[in-house]
Design goal:
- The protein is of the alpha+beta class and 467 residues long.
- It folds into 2 domains: 282 residues, set domain protein methyltransferase, domain 1 (Alpha-Beta Complex), CATH 3.90.1410; 176 residues, Alpha-Beta Complex (set domain protein methyltransferase, domain 2), CATH 3.90.1420.10.
- 42% of the residues lie in helices and 12% in strands.
- It is built from 14 helices and 13 strands.
- The strands form 6 sheets. The chain has a 3-stranded antiparallel β-sheet, with no helix packed on it. Strands 1-2 form a two-stranded antiparallel sheet. Strands 4-5 form a two-stranded antiparallel ribbon.
- Strand 1 and strand 2 form a beta hairpin.
- It is elongated.
- It starts with 37 loop residues before the first helix and ends with a helix.
- The N terminus is likely disordered.
- It binds S-adenosylmethionine.
- S-adenosylmethionine binds next to strand 2, helix 8 and strand 6.
Length: 467
């Protein structure tokens, strides 16, 4: 998975807001008690004026900083109408990799990603404490103990999500962070006053801060103070927009708000796996959830070699192992199938094609598939097999796989320690809830795929019986 935290929105135009179909969720109804407690008033008195002085321009006249169950948040301080620009943050008050001191920047090659470079900017500012020009912003960033990205989960906590591909993605991200940390330490070793200040723990913390709150811009990943106090609602149509002509980022309201409403935006169309890894939270029902299914051609299949060759010839992804042998282990991404009757949108055509090749049991069948591909658009097994029983058999392979995974997911969900157990601390209870929402979402995807596949096979069986 990409390490990039959020969708890049380098847009030069505004959304056609008056025509939007608006979605209201319970999330976006979250309200702030209108009697602002002292801490909130102080946040507003200190922070926004500081940012506006630095920006030399007004950032927002419609929003106040406050706290919600999602941590720091922005609330409507006046009536907001759909289409209003609710905040504007000039590029020169955003933190990006080019805020690194020149001599350090020169040492960090392109092998080191933008997220890692920006993490170093954050660490250096953190170390300056009150002397940092960014102190009012840096001091408001969440502490390590408040962050729940799966990269911070203990081995036991990670076992809860063993079933999901997020488990491996988390390990891959941890390895990437470690690798980047050592590359940076090596690159800046000539500057002990800097290299000694960058500990692995600080780097992980800063890396997770950047992953969970920086937007991709033309300057690389950028932290956009104030805009990054906005929390996420997957149903919102409001996103952060970058205007490269005016050199600023802005947010346009997608709906009306009354004073006291929490204002939410959409970080991107992210599954609970991505939200867990990059942002450290999940949502209860996420329409973007997906499952990665691994398939390979069994070694005992007598036609294995021929199947691999034909898959390779027709550009279906194959891998070469370290010894140069071709193997087929690929991951297919299934999304929720919304309707059992239609085309099965959500189950990739490449997966169904793979199942058709997998179930072939004679060289003749494989040759027929290859000839058909050459005579059409070159893609292999994209059409239903002419032999109905064989087409059913191919899809039954997929049903067997989704059923097996469904059972495994159900067992994993059942084995989660109950969140309300007195033995469970606050952090574990929250992470357990995340694991629950992640696994439930992926289970829902599997069940929807299985229902569609079963319906497809039943329809084919009925057709077959009338022939
Ligand atoms: C860009 S920051 C938003 C401001 C943040 N709440 C803060 O305290 O600074 C993103 C972080 O906010 C929290 N967050 C945002 N949307 C959320 C949601 N819908 N549910 C739970 N936590 C959310 C997560 O901790 C996430 O990593």
């Amino acid at each position: 998975m990409l390490v990039v935290a959020r969708v890049t929105n380098v847009w030069r135009f505004r959304l056609p807001l008056p025509h939007l179909k608006l979605h209201f969720s319970s999330l976006s109804q979250a309200k702030l008690s209108f009697q602002l407690p002292y801490t909130l008033e102080k946040e507003n008195h200190d922070f926004l004026p500081w940012l506006e002085r630095k920006a030399g321009a007004q950032v927002s006249s419609l929003l106040s900083i406050g706290k919600s169950s999602y941590g720091r948040a922005l609330f409507a301080s006046k009536t907001i109408r759909a289409g209003d620009c609710i905040l504007r943050v000039p590029y020169h008050v955003q933190l990006a990799p080019d805020n690194l001191p020149l001599e350090i920047r020169a040492l960090l090659t392109n092998e080191i990603g933008h997220v890692a470079k920006l993490a170093i900017v954050v660490i250096l500012e953190m170390k300056l404490g009150e002397d940092s020009d960014w102190a009012p912003y840096i001091s408001r960033l969440p502490q390590l103990k408040e962050m729940h990205s799966t990269i911070f989960w203990s081995e036991n906590e990670l076992k809860m999500i063993r079933q999901s591909s997020l488990y491996q993605e988390t390990i891959n991200k941890q390895s990437l962070i470690e690798k980047e940390f050592f590359s940076i330490r090596q690159a800046v070793e000539r500057f002990p006053e800097i290299s000694e200040r960058i500990t692995y723990k600080d780097f992980m913390h800063a890396y997770a801060l950047v992953s969970s709150r920086a937007w991709g811009t033309t300057r690389g990943e950028s932290l956009i103070p104030f805009a990054d106090f906005l929390n996420h609602d997957g149903n919102s149509r409001a996103v952060v927009l970058n205007d490269d002509d005016k050199l600023l980022s802005e947010v346009i309201a997608d709906r009306d708000y009354i004073p006291g409403d929490q204002v939410l935006i959409r970080y991107g169309n992210f599954s609970n796996a991505t939200l867990s890894l990059d942002f450290g939270f999940t949502v209860p029902f996420n329409i973007h959830d997906e499952v990665h299914i691994q398939f390979n051609i069994p070694h005992h299949d007598p036609l294995r070699r021929m199947k691999l060759e034909i898959l390779q010839r027709h550009h279906v992804a194959t891998n070469k192992d370290v010894l140069g042998f071709i193997s087929f282990t690929d991951s297919f991404t299934i999304k929720e199938v919304r309707s059992t009757s239609e085309k099965g949108k959500g189950i990739p055509q490449s997966l169904r094609a793979f199942a058709r090749v997998l179930c072939a049991n004679s060289p003749q069948e494989l040759n027929d598939l290859a000839i058909e591909a050459e005579q059409t658009d070159g893609r292999l097994a994209r059409h239903p097999l002419r032999n109905i029983s064989r087409e059913i058999e191919a899809h039954q392979i997929l049903i067997a796989k989704t059923n097996q995974l469904t059972e495994e997911y159900e067992a994993s969900i059942k084995s989660l320690v109950p969140g309300n157990s007195p033995l469970v601390g606050e952090t574990l209870a929250l992470r357990r809830q995340m694991a629950h929402e992640l696994l439930n979402g992926e289970l829902r995807v599997l069940k929807s795929a299985s229902a569609w596949l079963k319906n497809y096979c039943t329809t084919l069986t009925t057709i077959g019986s009338h022939l």
